[in-house]
Fold this protein.
Amino acid sequence: MSESEERFARFMRHLPGLAWIKDLEGRYVFANETAQKVFRKSGDELYGKSDEEIFPASVAEQFKANDRRALAGDARIETVETLMHEDGVVHESLVRKFPIFGADGRAVLVGGIAIDVTDRLRAEEELKKSEARKAAMLATALDCIVTIDHHGRIVDFNPAAERTFGYRREDATGREMCELIIPAPLRDSHRRGMARYLATGEGRILNRRLELTAMRADGSEFPAELAITPITLDGPPMFTGYLRDITETKRAEQALQDSEAHFRLMADNAPAMLWVSDADARCTYLSTQWYEYTGSTPDEGLGFGWVECVHDDDRQNAQDAFLQANERRVPFNADYRMRTRNGEYRWIADAGLPRFDAQGELQGYVGCVVDVHDRKNYEQTLMEADRRKDEFLATLAHELRNPLAPVRNAVQLFRLKGPPEPQLQWARDVLDRQVDHLTRLIDDLLDVSRITRNNLELRKQSVALAEVIQGAVETSRPLIEQCGHELTVIVPPEPVYLQADPMRLAQVFSNLLSNAAKYTERDGHIWLTAALEGREIVVRVRDSGVGIPPETLPRLFELFFQADSSLERSHSGLGIGLSLARRLIELHGGSIEARSEGFGRGSEFIVRLANLAETPVPLPRESGGKTVRGATALCILVVDDNHDSADSMAALLRLTGNEVHTAYDSLEALQRAEKLRPDVALLDIGMPKMNGCEAARHLRRLPWGKNLLLIAVTGWGQEEDRRRTREAGFDAHLVKPVDHAALMRLLEDPRSAAISH
């Protein structure tokens, strides 16, 4: 008996699964080593214990129920039981339970054997999922998937193949593929290829894409793309073919080829030179005209070769401009000189636009090249003419201001010392008004020149609207009173401030008031009203004058436009005032418009400005800076090569109690200044031997010249002229004919010099 038990123990020890025996009350009487390990109990801990004492209640109930089933049927049962193993994972086991009978034939024990099938069940589940995924992929694939055996018979035929070829899967399965989907002329070739592969393993068309002609159930043929993959498992090989109907692709390719042919036909016959590049900025196409123009070959022009035809001085800039545009994916424009077939360099304009695909990816550029050499030369001629025009206007202004200066000085002298006879007073007033008129015409001409060159700058500051309007009214009042008009001015009762150039804004309103006075019959009425409307200041200048014809309104602000070009017109002008006014208002960020109900109904000009400013905080005035000995005891040196201008200015300054000396060139001025050491020096700029700027630098270098009040008095009034005088050391820049009141303010308060510069 002991030998039998030993054999039983050895058998149970080598059993690959779990084995155990319980009595009829469910107490363990035996468990092999594998079972003890899985149950995590030794034999001593197991024997005599029931499942309720060892396992969780749910597990114990599972085990007991299966024990009862085995005992009740007096036969073995097979089932699956779950238990968490020592690795912390719930395992599934295939369990056999059976009764063990005693000598009397009745069950006295219940035995169990279990094998862990967790991995197998999981593998089976994954296989099921894999098969399901495969079936889903085959069912939803857009391409035809056909599997054949080594005899060429179809074993699988997915839904896409059913739709494409017109066969049901059950009708296609088992039939030779050649008969169903391959046109008759190609069938023998297919069969020979199959035989060669089976005999030698050589498959010329396997594992690569190829195009062929396929056939539908109705006999129609279509182009297809095919890839065949061999499946070599146990047994004879099988083959899976992935086939796609490329009818639409072929049509698209043909359409593209036709489009390319049309493009090349048009490009080669276009009046411009056309080009195409790829996403890497390489030129991929140049039209026939480009090759004819440059005398280059495709090998020389394509890629980046085109830059070799660009002038050495322009090459880097042209290439950089295109590469930067390509990188930023923006339109490209460049003018450069390109070599022609005869070696001449001519100016061309090159422009290109980026091309994108449906996904927004850059495909490259398409562009054109146009010969603009003649236009460039014409533009250069125009620019040179424009430059000469500006120089002429500046020179003209200088030459006109020089004779006006002594006239203004003489009128001022006449006013201060002349007899108070009415006729003489009238003559003085006429001269004064006409000098002002000539001065304004000169200033307007120069302003127009600045505007056409975009060189007109504003000196903005926080300024009260009422002060600007007051300045404009004061400038225009003499003309308004001369015409006998009544002027009504209405401004907001509360202070309104603008961020603006006060002089330029006053110039606009003065221009509008002067126009209203000119184009209104004598004893008319002019209204200037200003109001705050929302965040805008709206200034209206209205008159009871001749009005504006409707057809004239759209062109009223054009440069040099004259509403009345007849010889009988009574109002002179250059036709630049309104154009200048509009540009000045636009530089302030505003707008101006004209309205009129027609002839004899008056006119109205409306200015809108939105650049409101906060109320300025007055700054304390500094006490430092240049000083003079007193308004009645100044030593002044007047320097001008125009004797009339110098002498008349000196005579005018002597009337205010100053000690005044004159010099007629810069060298004489330096000699006299060294002896006199004046408080103030008024220097003309354009003088022979040494100009006024050089003389100013000499004076500033002298020890006593640092505190000298230096004033430039000149006919040159451009911004560049003012910059030069500032750099030369002048404190102020006055333009001839000099405003006597402005000069007196400078002499009384030298700290105001910065305003006049």
